[in-house]
Design brief:
A 3-stranded mixed β-sheet has the order 2-1-3, with helices on both faces. It has a 3-stranded antiparallel β-sheet with strand order 6-7-8, with no helix packed on it. It has a two-stranded antiparallel sheet with strand order 4-5. It starts with a helix and ends in a 5-residue tail after the last strand. It is globular and about 60 Å long. Helices cover 35% and strands 23% of the residues. It has 2 domains: 167 residues, Antithrombin, Chain I, domain 2 (2-Layer Sandwich); 57 residues, Alpha-1-antitrypsin, domain 1 (Roll). Helix 4 packs parallel to helix 5. 16% of the residues are buried. It is built from 6 helices and 8 strands; from the N terminus they run ααααβαβαββββββ. It has 240 residues and is of the alpha+beta class. Belongs to the serpin family. Keywords: Protease inhibitor, Serine protease inhibitor. It comes from Glossina morsitans morsitans. It holds the Pfam family Serpin. This is Serine protease inhibitor 6.
């Protein structure tokens, strides 16, 4: 991995933490599930055609490694090429543009080459048909897991472009859990409230560490036949 791609990975992790903190602000007690890479991928498609202050602001907020669209595009290309034939992780990008509007050839070439992005022209005035087309694509790319990403009222006569990213992952643990070793224990939802949940348990060797800046411990759980892992972060405080 080049220095640029390594920095890209570190910046993605930093963006993930900051984005989660924004989503969790205000004491939300519901579970939060999101894909920071999907967010970055969609905005990166816009960044590829941005200039000046707009490009600088996008690069700053999303922790991109550069203000240069071609350089950033190459870092995304590295990830996409690396997992292009993966059986565990499927990533797809798409740009839908209003019929009658023209995408500049240099932009279309950049997103196709570096982001492997499909392009399709839709009539967003026919919002039911546009929503159906997008949902069909998302359902196909997520193996039927997401069937209704958008609704017709997402689009109107002012809609000109929709940027899409679909991500599907299904893997097996490299070190599998024994169902017979499942236990019940407290899970703290706040500093004073807890619920009883079932916990998977096992004894084995895993990557483990402590992050001072986040006040949490981290556990790395690798997936079988892959360089991908799940990282579980445990706050140092119950309401952390």
């Amino acid at each position: 991995m080049s220095d640029l791609n390594l920095q890209f990975a570190r910046n993605c992790a930093e963006f993930c933490v900051e984005f989660f903190q924004k989503l969790a602000a205000g004491g939300i007690k519901e579970n939060i599930i999101f894909s920071p890479f999907s967010v970055q991928s969609c905005v990166a498609l816009a960044f590829a055609g941005a200039h000046g202050d707009t490009a600088k602001e996008i690069a700053t907020v999303l922790k991109f490694t550069s203000n240069s669209a071609p350089e950033v595009a190459k870092t995304f290309q590295y990830v996409l090429e690396n997992y292009k034939n993966s059986e565990l992780l499927k990533i797809a990008n798409k740009i839908c543009v209003q019929q009658g509007k023209v995408i500049k050839p240099e932009y279309a070439n950049l997103v196709k080459t570096h982001f492997q992005a499909e392009t399709e022209k839709l009539d967003f005035n026919e919002n039911e048909a546009a929503a159906a087309s997008i949902n069909d694509w998302v359902e196909q790319k997520t193996a039927g897991k997401i069937t209704e990403l958008v609704s017709a009222d997402c689009f109107d006569s002012m809609t000109r472009m929709v940027l899409l990213n679909a991500l599907h992952f299904k893997g097996q643990w490299a070190k599998k859990f024994d169902q017979n070793q499942t236990i019940k224990d407290d899970f703290w939802t706040s500093s004073e409230e807890s619920v009883q949940l079932e916990y998977m348990t096992q004894k084995s060797k895993f990557g483990y560490g402590y992050f001072d800046n986040l006040n949490c411990t981290a556990l790395e759980m690798p997936y079988e036949n892959s360089d991908l892992s799940m990282f579980v972060l445990l706050p140092g405080e119950r309401d952390g």
